[in-house]
TrEMBL record, chain A:
Pfam families: CO_deh_flav_C, FAD_binding_5. This is Xanthine dehydrogenase family protein subunit M. It comes from Pedobacter cryophilus. It comes from the Bacteria. Residues 1-221 form the FAD-binding PCMH-type domain. InterPro entries: CO_DH_flav_C, CO_DH_flav_C_dom_sf, Diverse_Substr_Oxidored, FAD-bd_PCMH, FAD-bd_PCMH-like_sf, FAD-bd_PCMH_sub1, FAD-bd_PCMH_sub2, Mopterin_DH_FAD-bd.
Automatic annotation (TrEMBL), chain B:
CDD domains: fer2. Pfam families: Fer2, Fer2_2. This is 2Fe-2S iron-sulfur cluster binding domain-containing protein. Keywords: 2Fe-2S, Iron, Iron-sulfur, Metal-binding, Oxidoreductase. SUPFAM superfamilies: 2Fe-2S ferredoxin-like (SSF54292), CO dehydrogenase ISP C-domain like (SSF47741). PANTHER family: OXIDOREDUCTASE WITH IRON-SULFUR SUBUNIT, OXIDOREDUCTASE, IRON-SULPHUR BINDING SUBUNIT-RELATED-RELATED. The keyword Membrane does not apply. InterPro entries: 2Fe-2S-bd, 2Fe-2S-bd_dom_sf, 2Fe-2S_ferredoxin-like_sf, 2Fe-2S_ferredoxin-type, 2Fe2S_fd_BS, Aldehyde_Oxdr_Iron-Sulfur, Beta-grasp_dom_sf, TAT_signal. Gene3D superfamilies: 3.10.20.30, [2Fe-2S]-binding domain. It comes from Pedobacter cryophilus. GO terms for molecular function: 2 iron, 2 sulfur cluster binding; metal ion binding; oxidoreductase activity, acting on the aldehyde or oxo group of donors.
Length: 327, 212
């Protein structure tokens, strides 16, 4: 690992001031993604700003729902009584990711910011527009089994690898971002971006901003939530496809529904059209199959990931059946 | 909303900029001569700043297996390299060095983590427990006993990580069934495939109900 400067911050205000002062510095939280990438020379920041002493480790209820500090651990949330009972979708998604050790290190902010797992992004001997803009995309014509089928661009077809993000986008979460000069709150759905012509940027966080909070509004999905993750082995593997489904039911009638997918796009992918179709309908295999068909409109595969065109809709149906207790 | 946040604490901040000017003037050429090419290339790109940092050591107060240490660490030293290379506690193993195998599992303030993916410098004031720290003198820890009794290993390379992880798995309350144990122990890979016996060992300790 190339050496770097290290500073440790004790308050939010000093952390954002440091971000202002050192535009090339990187925040370090759990370290589980950044240190991995630095060891491989995929990222080589000259300075790390350790934010671990900051008072952002809480998970608590507010008038709007639940507020989670950017330094709360993934394991802390997954095991939290409030999250398990009122937001089980989040708990399920987190526990489907990584390993117990890594979830003990992974913070909410760090998880949101984790980089893609495209193998060419990791391989510094290969062209990759995300790692090195304008060098080319090796995945387009290479091994692209893990890659995207929605909203891809002709310069990058990588996917966002996080499980937590899929649940948070389904749950209409919001994010608070703070810089030395201002604080803004944006929808979680607007945090990550598509690759477009700037694949080097995964999201809309400005260089001088940090994530301080995630807010999940109250919902009634807790009896009918399911996170389905399809992967190469049963545990400790990234998703080929994942589906987060939350339903609010009135008998067999779907009052409200939230659906999102992982492993398919450069950002956690909400299935708005499928949601609109299901709203007010009866929970049934037929309706779920129709919703999956709607969700797949515009999907495009790249060779090795052709299987996702079949796996994705059947995963959507399966997640909905599980969430509505029909299977 | 923001009024519900905890107040900002005034914990000690650490800003290291100490010897930069001096190092800039004196050691740049030596560093280039000694560094592998990659470091040299990066160093040249970022000029003197990074070369200076290359030599910077930061004080570290850390407790390992009940013993307090006052040491210095280079920012890039991982906790794993620190315990193995600096404290010579080589029970903790380096398998993949990338968070993929669990051989390096240690406890930080009682919580299991992969020591290869955290920096020593980030552990200021923390209490670390490694495999060397769990026995009570000559008396093995119940999990060590159970691994022996159940043949929870073959070559033994993954075993320190498995045992540290297993103790935490029970303490976290995630050892209530073999299925749950398998899921919450998935971060520890065993190339010898001792998995069934590892699960048996954990079940036995869990059923024993001892405080770990
Ligand atoms: C072997 C392995 C398997 C894994 N499997 C999965 C999986 O199946 N599913 C899954 O979802 N994840 C998986 N992960 C990834 C894991 O979830 C991430 O590494 C973790 O969430 C990153 O969090 P962190 O706090 O350690 O981030 P760090 O490594 O500390 O930081 C990551 C990035 O976030 C930035 N950052 C951190 N906090 C903030 C903040 N508050 N504001 C702004 N920027 C910030 C940092 O600057 C850095 O760029 C796996 C990781 C490994 C190593
Ligand atoms: S898909 Fe994106 S991350 Fe992967 S090689 Fe292409 S540009 Fe790089
Ligand atoms: S050496 Fe740390 S997980 Fe493999
Ligand atoms: S005992 Fe050999 S790797 Fe587990």
């Amino acid at each position: 690992m190339i050496n770097f400067d290290y500073i440790r911050m004790g308050s939010i205000s000093s952390a954002v001031k440091a971000l202002d002062k050192f535009p090339d510095a990187k925040i370090i939280a759990g370290g589980s993604n950044l240190i991995d990438l630095m060891k491989r020379n995929v990222m080589a920041p000259t300075k790390l700003i350790d934010i671990n002493p900051l008072p952002l480790k809480y998970i608590h209820t507010t008038k709007q729902g639940v507020q989670i500090g950017a330094l709360a651990l993934n394991s802390q949330a997954a095991d939290h009584e409030l999250i398990k009972t009122k937001y089980p979708l989040l708990s399920m998604a987190i526990n489907a990711g990584a390993s117990a050790q890594l979830r003990n290190m992974a913070t909410f902010g760090g998880n949101m910011m984790q980089r893609t797992r495209c193998s060419y992004f990791y391989d510094t001997t290969m062209p990759c527009n995300k790692r090195e803009p304008n060098s080319g995309c090796s995945a387009l014509t290479g091994i692209n089994r893990m890659h995207g089928i929605f909203g891809t661009s002709d310069v990058c077809i990588a996917v966002n690898p996080s499980d937590m993000n899929v649940a948070l986008v389904a749950l209409d979460a919001k994010v608070i971002l703070k810089s030395a000069k201002k604080e803004r709150t944006i929808a979680f759905a607007d945090f990550h971006k598509l690759a477009g012509d700037s694949p080097q940027l995964d999201n809309h966080l400005q260089k001088n901003e940090m994530i301080t909070d995630i807010i999940i509004p109250e919902n009634q999905f807790y009896n009918n939530s399911y996170y389905l993750k399809v992967r190469d082995r049963h545990s400790y593997a990234f998703a080929l496809i994942s589906v987060a489904a939350g339903l609010e039911m009135d008998g067999q009638n779907i009052k409200k529904v939230r659906l999102a997918m992982g492993g398919v796009a450069h950002k956690p992918w909400r299935l708005y059209d499928a949601e609109n179709f299901l709203q007010g309908k009866t929970a049934s295999l037929q309706n779920f199959e129709e919703a999956a068909k709607i969700a797949m409109k515009g999907a495009k595969s790249y060779g090795h990931n052709d299987f996702k065109l079949a796996l994705a809709p059947s995963s959507i149906v399966e997640a909905l059946l599980k969430a509505s207790h029909l299977s | 909303m923001s009024d519900q946040k905890q107040p900002e604490t005034q914990e000690k901040e650490l800003i290291c900029s100490s010897r930069r000017g001096f190092l800039k003037a004196t050691t740049a050429l030596t560093a280039i001569a000694l560094s592998p090419s990659l470091i040299t290339k990066a160093a040249l790109q970022h000029a003197d700043e990074r070369l200076a940092a290359f030599f910077e050591k930061i004080p570290l107060n850390i407790e390992v297996n009940g013993k307090a240490y006052q040491m210095e660490t280079e920012p890039r030293e991982t906790l794993l390299d620190f315990v193995r290379e600096r404290l010579h506690l080589t029970g903790t193993k380096k398998g993949c060095d990338h968070g993929q195998c669990g051989a390096c599992t240690v406890h930080v303030d009682g919580i299991r983590v992969n020591s290869c993916l955290t920096l020593a410098v980030m552990q200021e004031g923390k209490k670390i427990t490694t495999i060397e720290g769990i026995a009570n003198g000559d008396k093995l820890h119940p999990m060590q006993e159970a691994f022996l009794k159940n043949d929870g290993f073959q070559c033994g390379y993954c075993t320190p990580g498995q045992i540290m992880s297993a103790i935490a798995c029970i303490n976290e309350g995630h050892a209530n069934s073999p299925t749950e144990i398998r899921e919450f122990m998935s971060g520890n890979i065993c190339r010898c495939g001792a998995y069934p016996n590892i699960v048996d060992a954990i079940v036995e300790v869990k059923n024993g109900g001892m405080k770990l």
